[in-house]
């Protein structure tokens, strides 16, 4: 997992609208890094794709919103409220709002993360 003082590499520019793309090809692996590419970002939520190099994960956190995560290449372990979930390519999971969670790598992997911020009023 990345130490707290290291930040993921982020590209906040959205993908071109109305143009088809192959999701696993729009982001590359960067040695010793987590890379985040915004697919679409709106005030009520966003969709991002993330790549994790060998040994890279995300530190424990909580979110005020539900998050949907889907592995699109490789595999990883998602720990939600101290319960491990082993996800392979194509598997997805909803991370409930306000529960602690983190990602443990199992080699290189890519995942899509969707956050919807509406409906929490």
Write a structural description.
With 121 residues, the protein is mainly beta. The chain has one domain: Jelly Rolls, CATH 2.60.120.10. The protein is built from no helices and eight strands.
What's the short story on this structure?
By secondary structure, this protein is mainly β. It has strands at residues 9-11, 34-42, 45-52, 58-61, 67-80, 83-88, 92-95, 101-116.
Question: Which descriptors apply to this entry?
Answer:
8 strands; mainly beta; 8-stranded mixed sheet; 121 residues
| CATH topology (level 3) name | Jelly Rolls
CATH superfamily: Jelly Rolls
The CATH architecture comes to Sandwich
Q: What quaternary form is this?
A: single chain
Q: Helical segment tally?
A: 0
Q: Indicate how many domains the architecture comprises.
A: 1
Task: Annotate the secondary structure layout.
Elements: E1 9-11, E2 34-42, E3 45-52, E4 58-61, E5 67-80, E6 83-88, E7 92-95, E8 101-116
Parallel strand pairs: 1-2
Antiparallel strand pairs: 2-3, 3-8, 4-8, 5-6, 5-7, 5-8
